[in-house]
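Input record, target 12 of the design panel.
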């Protein structure tokens, strides 16, 4: 690694001085439910409450602020599907320069609207972030604007590292920090700061299993592109780790674990219900790891702090993820039940459900289907249950009454 690409604690402290007048010092709050499950104190670092709704302005502002005045005057450009776009747009406006952002076609409408509201000129180009990034690079080459990469630059890493400085001030005895991980800028920054100031602290990264480039990359000793990218956690769905973060993560981070989509949904739901915090799936990745065998069965040095890296979630996605989380937690049961096509049969079915203590959410009654006999109908039924054990009780009650049941979730 070239020396110019390394990040030291001096750069992190300098970034903290640059950011102090403009960046919020986000709270770190305890979570009783996670503390009970982990057997040690667990706290949440609420970067979802940061300006623009994520940690991204820390790196973006530091990067733009460090540009020479004549360079900054030519404007900045970025490519992003959401959080980085907003971070760059807000930072550019604060530093009195122009920003242009390339976003993929089909990017979340709320993130698109927010990026424009922060003052950026937005272009929708390409069907993925790689295509948007190519357009942004071409724009930079043509206009002289500076490309602000979302994670692969020392100033970005140093800016993100200021999260760790706040954690050390708020929880001086911290033993483990869990970090949602995409391109690696936040993870690398946290690792650099903690290694310099509190080397006892373990740093653990978390990726979505359906978009996990880091485990294979670390095993190979070089960044390797992920084979697939199919996760609701779009904020950490990065296909290729950055070269600058990779060098620091490979040296300083203990491990990177992965979590599945069910775990992400449950984590988001827990943050909403128990912590009263709106968190996007990527931001809840650390909580997901603490809820699953990825980390729950470990004896992690405490206190444990997990970073809620962002809270910018499309309301429509939030609705779907809440439903998915309720299903994954055994609190929704969707099923198809075959009943006789005669008066009273549907009433009898619903009577069993009611006596079992479940609450009906939705019923669809259908007489069509090649698998049905002429005297049968199929009922698609969604009910609310009190958890996995109650879910099983409802299914057992229906089968004991002779109903043919296929549970979908």
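The sequence produced for target 12 reads:
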């Amino acid at each position: 690694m070239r020396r110019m690409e390394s990040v030291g604690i001096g750069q992190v402290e300098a970034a903290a001085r640059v950011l102090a007048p403009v960046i919020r010092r986000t709270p770190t709050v305890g979570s009783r439910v996670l503390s009970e499950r982990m057997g040690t104190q667990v706290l949440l670092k609420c970067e979802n409450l940061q300006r623009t709704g994520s940690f991204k302005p820390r790196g973006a502002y530091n990067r733009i602020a460090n540009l020479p005045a004549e360079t900054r005057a030519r404007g900045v450009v970025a490519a992003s599907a959401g959080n980085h776009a907003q971070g760059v747009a807000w930072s550019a406006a604060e530093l009195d320069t122009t920003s242009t952002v390339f976003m993929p076609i089909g990017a979340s409408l709320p993130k698109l609207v927010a990026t424009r509201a922060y003052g950026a000129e937005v272009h929708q180009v390409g069907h993925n972030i790689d295509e948007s990034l190519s357009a942004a690079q071409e724009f930079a080459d043509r206009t002289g604007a500076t490309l602000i990469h979302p994670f692969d630059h020392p100033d970005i890493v140093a800016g993100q590292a200021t999260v760790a400085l706040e954690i050390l001030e708020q929880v001086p005895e911290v033993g483990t920090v869990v970090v949602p991980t995409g391109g690696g800028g936040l993870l690398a920054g946290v690792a650099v700061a903690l290694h310099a100031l509190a080397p006892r602290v373990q740093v653990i990264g978390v990726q979505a299993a359906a978009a996990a480039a880091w485990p294979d990359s670390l095993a190979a000793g070089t960044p390797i592109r992920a084979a697939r990218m199919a996760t609701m956690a779009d904020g950490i769905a990065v296909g290729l780790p950055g070269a600058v973060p990779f060098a620091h993560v490979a040296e300083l981070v203990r491990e990177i674990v992965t979590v599945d989509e069910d775990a992400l949904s449950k984590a988001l739901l827990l943050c909403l219900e128990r912590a009263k915090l709106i968190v996007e799936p990527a931001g809840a990745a650390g909580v997901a790891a603490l809820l699953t065998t990825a980390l729950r069965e470990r004896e992690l040095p405490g206190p444990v702090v997990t970073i809620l890296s962002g809270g910018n979630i499309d309301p429509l996605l939030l609705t779907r993820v809440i439903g998915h989380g309720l299903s994954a937690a055994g609190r929704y049961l969707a099923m198809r039940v075959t009943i006789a096509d005669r008066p009273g049969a549907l009433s009898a079915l619903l009577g069993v459900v009611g006596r079992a203590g479940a609450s009906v959410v939705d019923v669809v009654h259908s007489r069509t289907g090649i698998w049905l006999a002429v005297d049968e109908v199929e009922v698609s039924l969604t009910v609310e249950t009190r958890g996995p054990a109650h879910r099983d009780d409802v299914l057992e009650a229906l089968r004991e009454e002779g109903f043919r049941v296929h549970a979908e979730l």
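Residues 154-170 form the longest helix (17 residues).
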